Amino acid sequence: MKPLAAARPPLPFFLDGGADARFCVFHSPSHSPSPDDACRGAIVYLHPFAEEMNKSRRMAALGAAALAADGYAVLQIDLHGCGDSAGDFGDATWESWLDDVARARRWLQRELGDRLTEVPALWGLRLGALLALDAARRAPEPPSALLLWQPVTSGAVLLTQFLRLAVAGQMLAAGSADKGGTAALRERLAAGETMEIAGYQLNAALARALDAQDAAKAPPPPCPVHWLEVVAEAGRPLPPAAARIVQRWQEAGIAVDTQTVAGPQFWATQEIAECPALVERTRHALSALDHAA
């Protein structure tokens, strides 16, 4: 793999304003000597859920910078109610996040104009990968490709894991005991209650949408897929659930490239962690796609 080109400084900005303001960071393709040259492609990055977003900012920035240095235009967007974007997390919905994905793609297409020769790809990490899959299926023009880092395959499983944080908090509180576990919390959400969990306000509509997202049951994506999974030790295969999904997509005729890389679970570690091998493997995967084309 060729070394990285000199990176251009990323451009932070707000897409639109007021209640619609979405904080973005644009990484311009570094290899283009002039604004009129074509770039290798454009990519929208979609971040993980809740605190995983903050844990992953470092890796997202490293990945975006590397892809930009390889000639891709990359747009990172903080979704509605997340990060530095307008709105509260408690007001965010799955639909508002899908709208943000579409807005980000349109911005890239307007910004790059004739330099862009294909529809922007979607790159999602954890829940961002599940969002990218749903956005790809709904889009009038499918993305050129999907880049999935450690994709969450079941929104219901992720929601259960998130609710366990609230259960743990209840059990640690003085004089408190387990009052029905996650099942009781789901009942409160089903009744329309907004709940505070680990500092995040989770509304009932978003909880219902998360429960409905299941990559194992949804139709295959309408474009090629690069699936990269972080594992504890080199040589480990994809988890069985992920492997079954990949097999179903491949049997449906979808080109799916799967790779595993050893490294830390940087989206969940106590301290901010890096997995440089994941970035390098991603560069190799996209470079191989270019050669195949």
From TrEMBL:
State the UniProt keywords alphabetically. Answer: Hydrolase
Superkingdom of the source? Bacteria
Entries under InterPro entries matching the protein: AB_hydrolase_fold, Hydrolase-2_PEP, Hydrolase_4
TM regions (residue ranges): none
| Domain annotation Serine aminopeptidase S33: ranges | 40-165
GO MF terms, alphabetically ordered: hydrolase activity
Cleavable signal peptide? none
UniProt xrefs under NCBIfam families: hydr2_PEP (TIGR03101)
This chain belongs to which protein, by name? Hydrolase 2, exosortase A system-associated
